[in-house]
Design goal:
alpha/beta, Uracil-DNA Glycosylase, subunit E, four-stranded parallel sheet, 21% strand
């Protein structure tokens, strides 16, 4: 399978009340198809976050947007454009980052979290100096991260609740 050049198709979710920002690396093929973050049915992002916040699991895109905004969470990805093979983070090259300044200027973001090591590496390499903000890396909610079961993920992601 060849690498295709892909531009990020999903706008960020945020408003002026956001207090934390969660950044992924780049949307999977499935997320790009459904047009929203963490769209693969086996990705545990929505299940983990709803457990951490003790909220019902949102189902539709509108419910997910409302869920994020009501909990003062902004979501986007570090990468705005890249060459990628399918959904493989390890294949990412020719990175252009998303411009996070609109979110950081509009909202009082107290902490930035990254979902997984690829997001952490990309942020540190391309964005940390630009924004002068450190991130806290959380274990990936991707189904590919089999080393972390739901219980461990929820336990580690609890730091989000403590940051709100």
């Amino acid at each position: 399978m060849y690498k295709e050049e892909v531009r990020h198709p999903i706008p960020p979710v945020y408003d002026e009340n956001a207090r934390i920002l969660i950044l992924g690396s780049f949307p999977s093929v499935k997320s790009r198809e459904v047009g929203f973050f963490y769209g693969h049915p086996r990705n545990r992002f929505w299940s983990v976050l709803s457990a951490v916040l003790n909220e019902p699991l949102p189902q539709t895109i509108e419910e997910k947007k409302t869920f994020l905004l009501q909990n003062h969470i902004a979501v986007w990805d570090v990468i705005g454009e890249c060459k990628i093979r399918g959904s493989s983070d390890s294949s990412i090259e020719d990175v252009k980052i998303n411009d996070l300044s609109a979110i950081l200027e509009k909202a009082d973001i107290r902490q930035i979290f990254v979902n997984g090591r690829t997001a952490e590496k990309m942020y540190e390499r391309y964005a940390e100096d630009l924004y002068q903000r450190k991130v806290i890396a959380l274990p990936s909610t991707s189904p590919a991260n089999a080393a972390w079961n739901m219980e461990r993920l929820i336990d580690r992601w609890m730091i989000i609740r403590d940051s709100l």
